[in-house]
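note to self — DONT lose this again. spent like an hour looking for the file last time. sequence + predicted structure for the chain T wanted, 309 res
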Amino acid sequence: MAEQRFSTNGSSDNNGKKNIGFWVVAGIIAVLVIVVLLNSFTVVNEGFIGVKYQFGKIVESDMSAGLNFHIPFVEEIEQVDTREQIYSVQTDAYTSDTQTVDSLQLKLNYYYDGTKLSEIIRTIGISNVETKLLVPNVAKISKDEIGKVKAEDLVQNRSDVQNAIYESLKETLEPQGIIVTAFAIENLSFDEAFEQSIQAKVIAAQDALKMQNKTAEREEEAKQQVIAAQAEADSQKIKADAEAYAIKAVQEQLEKSPNYIEYLKVSNWNGVLPQAIGTEVNPFIALGSSDYTTATRTTSTSAAPSDAE
């Protein structure tokens, strides 16, 4: 009986060990499956393009943003930023009249051409774009274009020089997969004496423009005065011509009809009789009834000296 019990316990222990071993193996397999699944997908962020490598070789270079599948331990996905980027550099340059441009600050805006991204990675490398493409070309092209103009023209026509550099950079970089969106010369610094001479020249030009404006204003005022005088003269002439015509018409009418002047008198009479008619010696005075006595006395008084004589 005792031996039988011992053998039963040994069998139970063996079964327990087998069960434990099974679950350990199952757990390891589950962990491996989870690891494999987790390494089978990569998230490509918005604004980036995914580039898939298979044992170091590019097999896909235009993976869109989101969750992307790849074979774990065989393939991997790297993200490349395709958003607009800024490259800025400070350098020196010389103008065509040998003026030194100190602390020339240049800024280039660009992004990668998605259709040529794999070529950029193969031939240059994303991490080498700035050192191999931007540094030499931006500085060289900028210095070449600035060297074609005088310092004064560079100050006054900076935008024209910027556009020339921008077009040259586009022509050089875009075939290599770099899309240029903007270029700017942010700072120009010359010798102090030259800057003072430029400033004095600008001030002189502004003063000359003011004088030209004043001269033009005075000329315009003189023209307006001449026009006003001419208009007044024309007005007087028209008035004189009208009066002469009226006089001529009256004279012609008098020649035709001598009584025309009497007609004019009657036409212009206001209906009021004159107060005195006749000569100065014997005037006839039209008076009202209330004034008759006063008029008689005045006449008698005036006649008295004649009787005394």
